[in-house]
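User: I want to check something. If I give you two sequences, will you return the structure for each one separately, not as a complex?

Assistant: Yes, each is folded on its own. Here is the first sequence with its structure:
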Amino acid sequence: MKFRSALLFTATFAASSWQQASALVLIEIDFSNLNAVAFSTTDGFASVSDDSVGFDQGITLLGLVASAPGEFLGQFQGSNISPSLNDAGNSSETYTLVSTAGIDGLNLYSFFLSLDPEFTAPNQIFSTDSTAFVGSSIVDLAGFSLNPGTGDIVLGNGFGGEFGPVIGQWQAIPEPGHFGLLFGLGSLAWVIRRRTRG
C-alpha cells in the first residue's frame, strides 16, 4: 500500500512539474530533419504584455543555435507563423525570414520595403490574456547544430545591443528530459510491481 501511495504521489508530482514547465512554451521546434526544421505554435499566452517591437525586429529564440555555418539569412517555406495580434488587430502579417547574424539564437522577422520615409513596420502585440502565436513554419537549417531543450523567446533582434522582454519559451520536441521522466516512472512502476508480487 505504501508503494502505491508513493507511486501515485510521484506520478502526480511529475505531471504537475511537467505542466508547469510547459505552461510558458509558446513555440515547439522539431529539428529531427535539419533540411526541414518545423516550428509550431502552442496555445500558450505571453508572460508579459508588450506592443513596442515591430515585425522588422521580430522575435529571437535565444540559445537555440549551437553553431551555424557563418552568418545566416534564410526564408521560411510556406510560413504562416505570426503573433496572434498586430497593429491591425489580426494575424495577417507573418514572419518570413530567419537570421543568426551576431546572436546565439534565431531571429524570426519580416522585411518591409517602402519608398515612404514615414513608413514604419506594424508592431507585434503580445498580451498576457491571449494566445501569443498562431500558425506553423518550416525552414532549411542544414549545416546547423541546434541545442535540445528549451530557451527564452525575447522580443527584438538584439542588434542594437538590447533585447526586449522575455515573452515565453521555445522547446525542442521531443524534449530529451521527457524520455528520462518516462523511463524513471516506468522503472518505479516495475519495482513496485515486483515488490507487491514477491
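And separately, the second sequence with its own structure:
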Amino acid sequence: MLKGKKIFLLPIERHDIITLTEWLKKDLDFSLISPTALFSLNIDELENWYNSLVYNPRVRVFVIRNIEHKTPIGLIELNNIDWKNRNAEIGIFIAYENLRRKGFGSDSLLTIINFSFYELNLFKLYAKISSDNYPSIKLFEKFNFKKEGILRKNIYKNNEYIDLLIYGLLKEEFITNNIDI
C-alpha cells in the first residue's frame, strides 16, 4: 500500500473489475487516464485486461482509494516501464466528477511520483495528455512536468483530430523543486 495525505493506493486486484464495470456503465471517460485507452463494457475483456497486468513487469496499476471512506475513486498507472532506461509512462483517472479538483489527483500523483523515483528508482516519468484535457495539463504542470513534444492531430475524438501532448519529469527536477501539495 502506498499512502498519501488524502488517498492510499493499492495494486489492482481481480475484485476491482466489478468497480471498473460500474464506472464503465456510467459512461465515464477512461481516455482521461490515457488518451489512447480502449475499455469495453464486456466483463470478459476486462478480465483479460486484468490477467495481462498480473505478471507484466512493465505495468503497475493502482486503485486510488479515499483515505477517509476507503472507497475506490480512481486509477493511477505506470505503463511501458522501461527498466533499462529507467522511465515509465504515467496516467491518472479520478472516476467521480464531484471528487475532481479536490486534491485527490494531486495527492495520488505525488504519491506515485515518490514511489517511482524512490522505490522503483526510475529516472524519468512521462505522460501523454490530449490537448483538450486542461485539468490534466494543469495537474502535471503543477508537479513541474515539462512539455516535451506535440504529436499533432494524433487522436480522433468527438469528430475531430486533436493533438497529443507529451509531458516529462526527471527525478533530479523533482528532487530540486521539492514539490508538495
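Because they were folded independently, the notes below concern the second chain alone. The mean pLDDT is 89. The longest helix spans residues 104-119.
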